[in-house]
């Protein structure tokens, strides 16, 4: 399934939103494009604490680790990805977002989210991990634009859901998943057709996905 690649082209935000790690962010920020590009920076994966077989709500070691590495990240806004790591592979299981006043810290480990994470951990062996993808203001400052940043954060959440679904069709997201799960386009979305590929299928894959 190729939802991850296709999702990047679904919305007009694509031309003006970027996700970077530290080195990638710095190199692009210096290019003078900050005036019209929205930046998200990726942090993690951070280990998620479990006690007696259940994910804890407080997550004190988790937040201590986050703040020791990136001060202020816990209060930042943006998207997050819960995954399960087995060996070197991390499988995505849930994508969420936050624009709440307390940022990631006020959203990521709410009781109803704990139930989702524990359910995922009952379906796959491994340790739970979390990525935090923060909306940035400049190169080294977390954005607090909760009102104006809501639109692009919503778009990024849906885009990441498409990417996660391309890696794990059992992801636990429910909202905005109807079309992801039920629309197929030959060569682009859905299960690959058995047998030899049609020339049209190969052509559209090359045109839109570069494959």
In short, what is this structure?
By secondary structure, this protein is α+β, with helices and mostly antiparallel strands. 32% of the residues lie in helices and 22% in strands.
Description:
With 211 residues, the chain is of the alpha+beta class. The chain has one domain. It is built from 7 helices and 7 strands. The chain has helices spanning 3-7, 22-29, 60-69, 111-121, 150-167, 178-182, 199-209; strands spanning 17-20, 38-47, 50-51, 54-55, 78-86, 89-98, 127-135. It has a 5-stranded mixed β-sheet with strand order 1-2-7-5-6, sandwiched between helices. It has a two-stranded antiparallel ribbon with strand order 3-4. β1 (17-20), α2 (22-29) and β2 (38-47) form a beta-alpha-beta unit. The longest helix has 18 residues, at 150-167. It starts with a helix and ends with a helix.
Number of helical segments with 4 or more residues: 7
| Largest sheet entry | 5 strands, mixed
- Rg, nearest Å: 18 Å
**Helix-strand topology string:** HEHEEEHEEHEHHH
| Helix residue percentage | 25-40%
Arithmetic mean of pLDDT: 83
**Uncertain ranges:** 1-15, 23-34
The geometry reads as globular
Strand order of the largest sheet: 1-2-7-5-6
